[in-house]
Design brief:
The structure is a single chain. By secondary structure, the protein is mainly alpha-helical. It has a single domain, classed as MetI-like fold, CATH 1.10.3720. The protein has nine helices and no strands.
């Protein structure tokens, strides 16, 4: 029995695919900024070396790094309403992505912070700089530069993980592919096209972060 493919029936649904593609990009753009920003705050809090703060940040990081992303997503969308907090699918998805990324980026930045020679910190102290100024002007820029490739990879991983957000009806790319195959019963073609679009998205995001964003931050592309 010959197998016949009908990619045209999937391509004809390009408005749905384009909407899902663009929404997925927007989700990772916003959650990427929020996640890394929160990761910076957490990594800075850990440098204060205060037992209670270290306990809170370590608990936060370990909780999020050792639980599945989809469980975190379901908790925000399905469990919080029982406490009176109801989030839209899109809000819950971006919040889950941001929180998840923050835990990983905090640990990545921690490794970068620990790689900074202590002599540079002492030099800042000798110049009368505060702990906050030393972290902002000396430690953080170098930590970002040293860990940027790992941060980029983590952003891409979170972006690909956003495919499960379709489970709560967030209209991103995998939601569009599932909707299309439900209409024309062309599951192979629909998800094959979605796979190619995710590949394009990953390459595009990595290229932008490795060249344009790193050039903006470090005054020169990395890699």
């Amino acid at each position: 029995m010959a197998i016949e493919f009908d990619f045209l029936s999937v391509v004809q649904e390009w408005p749905l695919l384009a909407k899902g593609f663009l929404l997925s990009l927007a989700m990772i753009a916003l959650s990427g900024v929020l996640g890394i920003l929160l990761g910076v705050i957490i990594s800075w809090a850990k440098t204060l070396e205060r037992p209670f703060i270290n306990f809170l940040t370590s608990t936060y990081i370990e909780l999020l790094r050792n639980t599945p992303f989809i469980v975190q997503l379901f908790f925000l969308f399905f469990a919080l309403p029982s406490l009176g907090v109801k989030l839209s699918p899109l809000t819950a998805s971006m919040l889950a992505m941001s929180i998840n990324l923050s835990a990983y980026s905090a640990e990545i930045l921690r490794a970068g912070i620990e790689s900074i020679p202590s002599g540079q910190v002492r030099a800042g102290q000798s110049l009368g700089m505060t702990q906050h100024q030393i972290f902002k002007c000396i430690v953080l820029p170098q930590a970002f530069k040293n860990t940027w490739p790992a941060l980029v990879s983590q952003v891409v991983i979170v972006m690909l993980g956003s495919a499960v957000c379709a489970q709560i009806s967030t209209e991103e790319l995998s939601y569009a592919a599932n909707l299309i195959q439900g209409r024309n019963f062309r599951a192979f073609e629909a998800f094959f096209v979605a796979t190619l679009l995710y590949l394009v998205m990953s390459i595009f995001v990595r290229f932008c972060l490795d060249h344009f964003i790193s050039k903006l931050i470090f005054r020169g592309p990395r890699g």
